[in-house]
Amino acid sequence: MRITYISNSRLPTEKAYGVSIVKTCEALADMGAQLTVYAPRIKNASGEDIFSYYGIRKNFSVRYIPTLDAVTWGVRYGFLLNQVSFALAVFFLHRGDKRADVVITRDEISGWLLGLKGYRVLYDMHGFPERHLWLWKIALKKMSGIFATNQWKITQCHTLFGIPLSKMVVARNGFDPDEFAADTSMGTVRKELSLPVGKQIVLYTGHLYDWKGVHVLAEVARVMPSTYFVFVGGTPYHQRAFKERHRDIANILLVGHRRHKDIPLFLRAADVLVLPNSAHAGDNPRSTYSRNDTSPIKLFEYMASGRPIVASSLPSIREILNEQNAFLVQPDNPEDLKRGIEKALGDTATARQRAARAREDVRVYTWEKRASSMLRFITKFAG
């Protein structure tokens, strides 16, 4: 099967969407798909190709599409110019390629244009729109099907856009079991990472955005001075802002961004892993992204690590976690988050039991299983 996978996203990138794209494509190619990724040719500070950056096999090809990198120009409507130029370039360049059996896209504009030309286009939905819903309805109606990273998106597409349930399937993000096969001791890993060996470590991985709940977690660190709180991730800008805001808390260690292939090491170094998402998202009080929409890759990697998890009790999180495989706490509540962390650190029998259950539960959320469900859907519903 010939597949074109389209994403108007900088690749490689320090953001999690890059991991989702390349791991999905690697898994699809492993199952026999002849796959080409279309991505924009825009400025990239890493200077590496995506295969070495992510440590993946070179079993698919990448075509970089000429695109107006208008976002970096600082001009008004720069993002829109970028979107339109990429979509038009994809539309005209794809016509000259050997016709794909199916197109999978994360870019709704290019997907809509190719749908108009009669291509079988499936939308890989990782975020639900919060504005201009009528435009989204027009675009999604041209898709042959939709992959959604959680059940909530499917319900919304059916309710708001009238998309038949038969044209949608849940294809969650996942993890790579090979990255969690090592059985290195916690002490050995901590020495390798220069982390304190004799201290309890509470660890968070990911960006340092407000809606991730990182500032709530930092306030918990303030009242648990004998425990180390390690934050792995964040852009240079957000790292500086985070340091400035919490500079008086001595037991916070801000590691900064690390390559995704190094994250399993950090997870093995922790006593407890935290997913403290806020019930709100950014400056928009009506945003439902954190509450209902997000499907964080770190969630599945936390589960695979075998470490106890403390997480916000949000609908998006509760699609995967429950009281049997994690310690769930009220979002945006530092007192309850502290209680959850103390429970996970203090009640070792319950913590081990829930961590083991999480490790068992996550076995159905591999990238291979995501790719398999996508291929089954393509075969059954897209013709």
What does this structure look like?
The protein is globular. Helix 1 (16-30) packs across helix 16, helix 4 (108-116) crosses helix 5 and helix 8 (214-222) crosses helix 14. It is built from 16 helices and 13 strands. The strands form two sheets. The chain has a seven-stranded parallel sheet, sandwiched between helices. The protein has a six-stranded parallel sheet with strand order 10-9-8-11-12-13, with helices on both faces. The termini are close together. It folds into two domains: 2-174 and 366-381, Glycogen Phosphorylase B (Rossmann fold, 3-Layer(aba) Sandwich); 177-364, Rossmann fold. With 383 residues, the chain is α/β, with parallel strands linked by helices.
The assembly state of the depicted protein chains is single chain
CATH architecture of the largest domain: 3-Layer(aba) Sandwich
Computed Rg: 21 Å
User: What class would the helix/strand composition place it in?
Assistant: alpha/beta
Major sheet summary line: 7 strands, parallel
Element order: H for helix, E for strand: EHEHEHEHEHEHEHEHEHEHEHHEHEHHH
> Helical content, roughly?
40-55%
The CATH topology of the largest domain is given as Rossmann fold
Provide the spatial order of strands within the biggest beta sheet: 3-2-1-4-5-6-7
CATH class of the largest domain: Alpha Beta
CATH superfamily of the largest domain: Glycogen Phosphorylase B
Distance between the termini: 12 Å
Number of helices in the DSSP assignment: 16
Low-confidence stretches: none
* Total tally of structural domains: 2
